[in-house]
């Protein structure tokens, strides 16, 4: 754990008038994550490379957390997962300086600020890991999610046409957005904004 994140989690959040706890995802969260995934629509999950409704996929996710290949935060309320984020890195690839940011929100917690909070916290995680760039992807019709990411400084980088298919066989485009973590960190330090996370 880097000094930047030392003692930061768990922490309390209030989103839409609801009190939530934000903390690191643990191995014993697998059942709760599976229940959470079961509440999401197929369309909510299309941007993921694997179906997190499958226990073996969530078990592999937990193993990657143990290996340090994924850093995941969960927002919980009453023992139920309200949302989560993950930064996925591949230290053995040609892009160990790049992390992929994934954010999932339960239907009852959208448009209330939780997504923005998870993205902000993920920025801090990315900085603590020394990452230089973050990418995020979603289906092109997820306009609300795209707007939140763009409002927070992500820029469109690629469009993959007909890249994923839903259960009915309908193809969907995937949009890839990216964020320059290094430039953000330099600007934050220059203006003293890095103290906002302390």
How is this structure best described in words?
The protein has 198 residues and is α+β, with helices and mostly antiparallel strands. It has a single domain, classed as Gcn5-related N-acetyltransferase (GNAT) (Aminopeptidase). Helices cover 31% and strands 33% of the residues. It contains 6 helices and 8 strands, in the order E-E-H-H-H-E-E-E-H-E-H-E-E-H. It has an 8-stranded mixed β-sheet with strand order 1-2-3-4-5-6-8-7, with helices on both faces. The longest helix has 15 residues. It is globular, with a radius of gyration of 16 Å. 29% of the residues are buried.
CATH architecture: 3-Layer(aba) Sandwich
**Approximately how much beta-strand content do the residues carry?**
25-35%
Q: How many DSSP-defined strands? A: 8
Individual helix count? 6
Explain briefly what this protein structure is.
The protein is an alpha+beta fold and 198 residues long. It is built from six helices and eight strands, in the order ββαααβββαβαββα. The mean pLDDT is 89.
Task: Explain the layout of strands and helices.
Blueprint lengths: L10 E5 L2 E7 L5 H9 L3 H4 L9 H13 L2 E8 L2 E9 L9 E8 L8 H15 L4 E7 L3 H9 L3 E11 L5 E10 H11 L7
Parallel strand pairs: 5-6
Antiparallel strand pairs: 1-2, 2-3, 3-4, 4-5, 6-8, 7-8
Helix pairs in contact: 1-3
Notable traits:
alpha+beta; Aminopeptidase; eight-stranded mixed sheet; single chain; 198 residues; 8 strands; 31% helix
